[in-house]
Amino acid sequence: MSDAASAGKSTSAGFKVTVPASTANLGPGFDAFGMALGLYDVVEVQVTDGGLKVEVVDAGAGGVEDVPTDETHLVVRAIRETCAHLGVEPPGLHLRCHNAIPHARGLGSSAAAVVSGVAAGYALAGRELDAFGALQLAAGFEGHADNAAASLFGGFVLAWCEGGEFHAERLAPHESIRPVVAVPAVRSATATTRGLLPATVPHADAAHNAGRAALAVHALTAKPELLLAATEDRLHQHYRAPAYPASGELVATLRARGVAAAVSGAGPTVLALTTAGILPPGVGVEGFDVFELPVDLTGVQVAAQ
Fold it and tell me: Residue 177 has what pLDDT?
């Protein structure tokens, strides 16, 4: 720990935080599975004598005109909470946020913002990122740890909550897996899509998802030829389908063509877990931007500037 952190003051160095996007659920692993993807938000942090300045740069996030530039900015909130948790006096800050992760599309933009703020808070305190403590802070913002854990640790993560504490285990996905995402122009709100989920589900559907989730761990890490069966979901996707019918239709079309497709997180982005890095020819993707995103294996990174 630096002398500044020991004294309850923040460090004065400038630095850059790079945080990956993430996809959650991966079909049957509702609120439990996450995977980091090679698309990155970058936050440049400079300590100042006082006050707050936030610049937001749209680096492909599909419009950032509705992003606040005051204390309500999600990165700022996460920095402030982390500094308070670590006993560090909040400094004056100049943040330059390069947003490449599309907002409200199911690619973990909110979790990435929180994770970057948590990582920045640790850096301001002169502290190495503590995996358990950072996960509690980051997951606490959303109430579940799948996206946050993926952005923190990289790779494929299994997340759960026990006794009020968040936990995650990182696994290495099979090297042949090449995710492809289809990102529509329309947005979706997690709060809205969660509201479409029923309070109870049939026992047969719950049992089905438990089996498929177990199979998915094996398929994602060791036997990707099982991914089509392993990503089949009966717990949440069909309930949410009315919120983004085009995404639901694309998932169904891809699965009929033998592609392990699912809605990414709360949607409306469609995730295809392929070994070719492309979608089959002839699949209609009008209204979607389609591109391969490699699995990120490192998670959030902090570098001095």
Answer: 98
Beta strands in 7-147 (DSSP E): 15-24, 33-48, 52-58, 92-99
Q: What is the DSSP string of 151-181?
A: HHH-SEEEEEEETTEEEEEEEPPPTT-EEEE
Q: How far apart are CA 236 and CA 180, in angstroms?
A: 21
Contact yes or no for 233/187 (Cβ under 8 A):
no
Count of beta carbons in the 10 Å neighbourhood of residue 265: 27
For tokens 């696994």, what's the residue?
171
Share of the chain above pLDDT 90, in %: 83
Give Cα 199 to chain centroid, integer Å.
Answer: 25
211-231 average pLDDT score: 98
Contacts 24+ apart (CB under 8 A), 285-288: 285/182, 285/250, 287/184, 287/185, 287/246, 288/182, 288/183, 288/184, 288/246, 288/250
Adjacent-strand bridge partners of 33: 158
